[in-house]
Every structure is written in C-alpha cells, then in structure tokens.
Amino acid sequence: MKKYVLLVAACFCMLSITLLSFKAQEPQKVIDQYWVLKPGRSISTTPSDYQLGGSPCTGSAEFCGFHAPENGSTDEPVISGDTETDLENLEADPETPSNESGKISYEN
Fold first, then answer.
1. Per-residue confidence at 14, pLDDT binned at 50, 70, 90?
2. H or E element in which residue 104 lies
3. Angle at 82 between CA 79 and CA 83, to 5 degrees
C-alpha cells in the first residue's frame, strides 16, 4: 500500500510539472517601427520598398514614412488595413496627403 501511495504521489508531481510547462504564455506586444522608402524607390504597398528609418518628420506636404510592425522574419513592414489604403492613395496621387490610419508622416 505504501508503494502505491508513493507511486500515485510521484505521478501527480510529474503531471503537475508537465501541465505547468504548458502554461499559456502572454502574447508579445506588437511595437510599431518607423519605415522610410529605400533610396530610388517610390511610394507603394510593397514591403521590400521600405527600410527602418529614424524619427518621424512633421508637416503636411511630402511623404516621409509610416509606422507599422516589423514582419519578424524578413525585416520588412507589415502593410495592411488603413495604412495600406493610405499608401495606395499616395501611390495613385502623391500630391494629395492621405492619413486615415494616423501612421503616415509628412514633411513641409
């Protein structure tokens, strides 16, 4: 009987350790990076046309860059939603600022 109790206790400990190792991890917080056009490229929704940039510019006339999360595996931005729409609008008409996403930067 004593061996049975020890066996059950050992199994319970191993099960507890196993279950604790599968504890759900907190999702990582997505941090937006600032992206600028690579030299010689024009505004597009193609992630490979952009590289990580410095600080956002301020103003209202000329496109500088935008904020978006990094892909994680390709060092390129994730372009989607309103940011993608803003870039499509700018690609079609670079003279008309578009910033529905609130993530596009312009300079004077």
1. low
2. strand 104-107
3. 40
pLDDT score for 34: 94
CA distances from 87 to 10, 11, 12, 23, 66 (A): 60, 58, 57, 40, 9
Quote the longest CA-to-CA distance of the chain: 85
* Cα 82 to Cα 17, 38, 78, 79, distances in angstroms: 45, 21, 12, 9
Provide the residue ranges of all domains of the chain, joining segments of one domain with +.
32-107
d(CA 36, CA 55): 10
Region for residue 59 given its phi and psi (left: phi exceeds 0; alpha: psi -120 to 50; beta: otherwise): left
Q: Which residues pair with 77 in a beta bridge?
A: 70
pTM of the model: 0.69
Name the 3-class secondary structure at 39: coil
Q: Do 88 and 66 form a contact (C-beta atoms < 8 A)?
A: no
